[in-house]
Amino acid sequence: MPDVVARVKNAGCLVLHQVGTEAAARMAEAAGADVIIAQGIEAGGHVHGRSPAFGLAERILAGTDLPVVVSGGIATGEGLAAALAIGASGVQCGTAFLATEESFAHSYHKSRIVEATGEDTVLTDVFVLNWPKGAAVRVIGNSVTEGLKGNYLGHDPDSLPRETIAHDDDQPRLRFSTDSPLRTTTGDLEAMALYAGQGAGNIPDVVPAAARLNTMVAQARHILKGPVRNGFTAMS
């Protein structure tokens, strides 16, 4: 990892490294990362750790002088304000911007996010084909997760069948793979990995990305009763 970080920084880029544990944060800092992203278990997609986002961020903040960003279940200005209030430099949002007009996600995926609540999401490692064993993801529950009957974790990719259920052009997409439905995907979209974090219940519609960002910043400004700290300003 230090060699990769050095190559990126030598090219004039900043390194933002996402972690799920305090140990990983210390390793990232030692390797030369510029920003630590503290990802909580609430996050959608691949989830590194098992701690709530804000608790993890507070512990990392206590042990580093690097900027720390909070990630996991954040989709509103309230979440942004809460992150700034504990001393974080901002937030990272995934699901909130997956459900935007510019996102290349399939409209079916976006509609499922809008309809879902945080309780509709599941942390599972059954969508693991293409990734190592134990790589858990948070998705919206579907027919695949329902078929697990509560046994969401502990699946071995070597024992899972390779069954094509969808396509992107001539590329097959397999049941149990990490592939999520894109605009170009056709087939059984419902059975694919529909990534979403626990903040899905705070996403009522699909809007332009700028509109979602402006709303979040305006909400945070209102809560903080003044200019947003740590460099955040509203977009015009």
Please outline the helices and strands.
Blueprint: H1 2-10, E1 16-19, H2 22-31, E2 35-39, E3 45-46, H3 53-61, E4 68-71, H4 77-85, E5 90-92, H5 95-98, H6 107-115, E6 121-124, E7 137-140, H7 143-146, E8 164-168, E9 171-174, E10 185-187, H8 209-224
Parallel strand pairs: 1-2, 2-4, 4-5
Antiparallel strand pairs: 3-7, 6-7, 8-9, 8-10
Helix pairs in contact: 4-8
Count of DSSP helices?
8
End-to-end separation: 39 Å
Question: Helical proportion?
Answer: 25-40%
Radius of gyration: 18 Å
How many structural domains are formed by the residues? 2
Describe this protein's structure.
There is one protein chain. Helices cover 30% and strands 16% of the residues. By secondary structure, the chain is α/β, with parallel strands linked by helices. A four-stranded parallel sheet has the order 1-2-4-5. It contains eight helices and ten strands. Strand 8 and strand 9 form a beta hairpin. It folds into two domains: 118 residues, TIM Barrel (Alpha-Beta Barrel); 95 residues, no CATH class.
Q: Tags for this entry?
A:
single chain; 236 residues; alpha/beta; TIM Barrel; 2 domains; four-stranded parallel β-sheet; 8 helices
Q: Would you kindly provide a brief summary of this structure?
A:
The protein is of the alpha/beta class and 236 residues long. The protein has 2 domains: 2-97 and 203-224, TIM Barrel (Alpha-Beta Barrel), CATH 3.20.20.70; 107-201, no CATH class.
